Amino acid sequence: MRKLDSKVPPGPLAEKWVKYRSTMPLVAPNNKRRLDVIVVGTGLAGASAAATLGELGYNVSCFTFHDSPRRAHSIAAQGGINAAKNYRNDGDSVYRLFYDTIKGGDYRSREANVHRLAEASTDIIDQCVAQGVPFAREYGGELATRSFGGVQVSRTFYARGQTGQQLLLGAYSALSRQISLGSVTMYNRHEMLDLVVVDGKARGIIARNLLNGKIERYAAHAVVLGTGGYGNVYYLSTNAMGCNVSAAWRAHRRGAYFANPCYCQIHPTCIPVSGDYQSKLTLMSESLRNDGRVWVPKDMAMVEKLRKGEVKPENVAEEDRDYYLERIYPAFGNLVPRDVASRAAKYVCDEGRGVGPTGLSVYLDFSTNTMRYGRSVAISKGQPDASDAKVKEWGKEVVSAKYGNLFEMYEKITGENPYETPMRIYPAIHYTMGGLWVDYNLETTIPGLFALGECNFSDHGANRLGASALMQGLADGYFVIPYTIGTFLANEIRTPKISPEQAAFDQAEKEVKERIEKLLSIQGNRSVESFHRELGVDIMWEYCGMARNADGLKTAQQKVRKLRDEFWKNVFVPGAANEYNPELEKALRVADFFELAEVMIMDALDRKESCGGHFRDEYATPEGEAQRNDKEYAYVAAWEFKGPGQAELHKEELTFENVELKTRSYK
Ligand SMILES: Cc1cc2nc3c(=O)[nH]c(=O)nc-3n(C[C@H](O)[C@H](O)[C@H](O)COP(=O)(O)OP(=O)(O)OC[C@H]3O[C@@H](n4cnc5c(N)ncnc54)[C@H](O)[C@@H]3O)c2cc1C
């Protein structure tokens, strides 16, 4: 087993980053101009990195498979971004954000990285405000905040329900400026299909021009991946349909270790599955749990009445409702972290108290807080005796100002008006905490290959707290990589321009072409989509989803292998290689999902404990909560590729010097 060096600098936690940053090797401006950097991805992580590296003077080439950098999946982020600004004077601090994140991650993340993230959080807000990101503001002009799960302060900055979009527009404008200055060359509609490693260092990529199918080579002194998460391995998820693991997976195949693949986040508030035709699930932002109360009926008689349509949910009396999160977790109530809220929803549905046609949903009800807001407006208008109808109307206006676009989206999809009747929600796959293993410099186990944002194994341990992915992506791109890439590039200033005309590029290109030819030559009977659906819904969600156990995971392993074999014999990919061919794009991505799925299962089998999003039925407390095993499993599991379905485990032991490992309690 290889010893993984996390390269965490010495010194007190709060001083590590400041001191390290001030003492690390620098690359002089004249040398930066001679160094080429490839950035793959234009989400918050990639766009912020490419813009900042361009601004610093590096010669950057930036790639996205989308038709515009602005289409990166970050655009979907709704609820907000955390920062320890303490504008509310409610007790927040960098330490508290650090502590909440470590605890929220169930003590499975690296202390030093998380502290650095909390430090950078405040700079991110300043940077984005300077770019013109229209964060919500209080009446007096100060930036507004709201609360997200797992915390007791209000530190989430937001732009209505479109925070990701607004932040991405900010990063995109910074990127566009560099494109217009010539320091960044942008390649839209180019998909990275392989990483090229020369003499042990990442030196380039092989990309397919998606418009004409041409296979192209790009060389650089270093490669940075900001290619997002792999939640789409489950087929149904809140991720955009195009999100995939291929860039990270291809890097993994070339030697980058893949860390904690079984840590997947299941978000408690998504619009429930409604039929077999669906290929996407829609998130209802966690911010809604600020004002929405989660409940199911107390007894089965009421469940039956609701199902038969004899009673409408809005007419169910208070005494017949079980606000189970408020009952079980009084300290955090509806704002418990996502893993806890998701499991609780699963339990009540498993008991049979789930609502809606499938019984797989719970209510998220805004009526109490609509009336509370309305009363407050009535008092401020000097009309404390206003009628209930008037109070409701005013309350609706407040709720609409906060969540209007989310309510509209819900109504468009379900046909139900959430101002009048409670929303129905159910957990769905949303985010992946696992990803490429990186050290403190965000460098993978391949020198010169860096990974940022959701595609690295991140600072979120076994469970990410809401509003912290945007924070991490932007911290990585704006504030970490611009420094840490220098630790590698400072030693490359004498390296001449990397030529793409060399053996490693020939070989990688040949392998890409062979893979494409193979997929096109099968001409079988099943669509790529049908394989993806079976892999994701019937195997991964069923056996490696909200709850896992050894028997189920072993069954899943067999099923994935069998299905993967069938895929390579019976998939039908129409069209040709040298043309626009979206089915071919999908086939290449699904082929990688098959290999990833096996390592996820291996990782879930290895981790004989429950922690965060990884819940093993065998390791639960008598109350049904996750039971960690810190003695044996306080490590990052970093898997080395040894062939499809084969991987070797390396462990990075996690040391906790600043927080005490406790059983996570939100009661
Ligand atoms: C519906 C939804 C709502 C969310 N809301 C929030 C929220 O409110 N707050 C929060 O903190 N987090 C939220 N998240 C999570 C957060 O949005 C993501 O974790 C984050 O935006 C990921 O950013 P990224 O830059 O790492 O990746 P992405 O934004 O996914 O970008 C990936 C980029 O890589 C490119 N790419 C990928 N593979 C290749 C390849 N092979 N070749 C070329 N290009 C490639 C893509 O084109 C894209 O440009 C939400 C997630 C979802 C799904």
What can be said about this structure in brief?
Its cofactor is FAD. It is a peripheral membrane protein. With 667 residues, the protein is of the alpha/beta class.
Could you characterize the architecture of this molecule?
With 667 residues, the protein is of the alpha/beta class. The protein is built from 18 helices and 21 strands. The model has no long low-confidence stretch (mean pLDDT 96). It catalyses: a quinone + succinate = fumarate + a quinol. InterPro entries: FAD-dep_OxRdtase_2_FAD-bd (IPR003953), FAD/NAD-bd_sf (IPR036188), Fum_R/Succ_DH_flav-like_C_sf (IPR037099), Fum_Rdtase/Succ_DH_flav-like_C (IPR015939), SdhA/FrdA/AprA (IPR030664), Succ_DH/Fum_Rdt_flav_su (IPR011280), Succ_DH/fumarate_Rdtase_cat_sf (IPR027477). One of its GO terms (molecular function) is flavin adenine dinucleotide binding.
